[in-house]
Amino acid sequence: MRDELAGFTIGVTADRRRDELAALLQRRGARVVLAPALRIVPLADDTDLREATRACLEHPPDVLMANTGIGMRGWLEAAEGWGLAEPLRTTLARAYVVSRGPKATGAIRAAGLREHWSPDSESCDEVVEHLVRRGVAGQVVAMQLHGERQPECADALVAAGATVIEVPVYRWAPPADPAPLHRLIDLVAGRLVDAVTFTSAPAAEALLRAAGDRTETVLEALRGDVLAGCVGTVTAEPLVRRGVPVSAPSRARLGALVRTIVEELPRRTVSVKAAGHVLTLRGHAAVVDGELRQLAPAPMAVLRALAASPGKVLSRTALLRTLPRGADEHAVEMAVARLRAGLTAPRVVQTVVKRGYRLRVD
């Protein structure tokens, strides 16, 4: 098959770059569920940002921690509006510049500045360790925040003798419309998506927070049937801390994240031989002898149950437990009929009179 992700459903929790990520996944055949977990609110007119900028001009920083590309660009754009862009750029040009990742590096260079060091892990902790080893006693550190305060990082620098100026350029806020996020939580809890992508640690925290009393159900799904795809190790941290195995590329790029998912999801497929056909189960579809067959949730649930024990007869009662609540035995018969029609291989599912159904493997 040319479309590596055909038959898989993937949730996207990003906001700002959701369309880009969705397009990359759809180009490979995936069905995408867009559900921003957070949105970025710029603080161009914020009093705290203006005061932090003036503090940097009055007490020129010896060190600049550039944490995000959007944050650095937003800071300089806000300074431009206040008529302070050139003085700020001149001041920052004298500092030892640490960029936490490639996006921050790009923003630094676009501003005519240059970075002096970047961590391999893109971790704030690694940045702090580097600065403490280098020595910050008596120095001023300008820390461009990424969404929320980082008290543990700031406190560690203060403990090492630095004066820290926190620069709040934007903050995270709940999505304008929370309905898609709650719909995605329903899908994850019901194991009706195959993967969920995260491009920031706050987004992962926000999804779990929005899950409310279903948080543990969502975590169990992410620990098992639903792949958690994270753009990098920093993004993955809230999930790893809760025992969720994650897939993350070595370099924090959207393209690399998509390649990681392309490699990982097909490994989770189940293949069986039945009635002379080869069936591969992929998310919401089955591949029958190399041809993709889209299936509705109920027929797909029945197929998964039968494929888990090829040749074994499953009663209507057993199959009923795989269907949504409120279904009856007639719903099982309907799901089997739709499954046979959808596979276009009617002999694959055999009716065993008075006992139930099985995959015909003989």
UniProtKB/TrEMBL annotation:
User: A GO molecular-function term, please?
Assistant: uroporphyrinogen-III synthase activity
Q: Which residues bind DNA?
A: 267-361
* Biological processes, Gene Ontology terms: phosphorelay signal transduction system; regulation of DNA-templated transcription; uroporphyrinogen III biosynthetic process
Q: Which CDD domains match?
A: HemD, trans_reg_C
Domain spans labelled OmpR/PhoB-type: 267-361
PROSITE patterns the record matches = OMPR_PHOB
Key words of the record: DNA-binding, Lyase
PANTHER family associated with the record: BLR5956 PROTEIN
Q: What is this protein called?
A: Uroporphyrinogen-III synthase
